[in-house]
Write a structure and sequence with these properties.
By secondary structure, the chain is an all-alpha fold. It has three helices and no strands. It starts with a helix and ends with a helix. The relative contact order is 0.03.
């Protein structure tokens, strides 16, 4: 059976081995710290790049939305102008019709008024 003195390294080896192990550990810690610092720098660079890309996408979307709003406003204004033109033409036709046949217009207005009166009466 092995004794504890057989298993323990000699004092001379333990002293030198301990210093070497400690030095290796310190070197590894320094390398790890350097790697962590590099990772942090890489993450910052990636975050900056993503921020710029996101900003560019937002600006692109904003420009597209602004363009669409302008187009919709132009279409809406065109439709409004068309509707106003049609109403204006209908009004002109109605006025011309009233001038040509005033009695017919009065009779039609009276008839429409009578129908509305019947509809609103309960």
């Amino acid at each position: 059976m092995a004794t504890t003195s057989d298993m323990a390294p000699s004092g001379r080896k333990a002293g030198n081995g301990g210093a070497a192990a400690k030095a290796k550990t310190e070197i590894r810690e320094q390398e790890l710290e350097a790697q962590v610092a590099q990772l942090q720098a890489d993450i910052r660079a990636i975050s900056d790049t993503l921020g710029k890309l996101t900003g560019e996408k937002v600006e692109g979307a904003r420009a597209l939305a602004t363009n669409e709003v302008k187009q919709l406003q132009a279409r809406g204004q065109h439709m409004l102008d068309d509707a106003q033109e049609q109403v204006s033409q209908a009004e002109k036709q109605l006025k011309d019709s009233i001038r040509e046949k005033p009695l017919t217009a009065v009779a039609a207005a009276a008839g429409i008024g009578f129908v509305f009166a019947l509809l609103t009466r309960h």
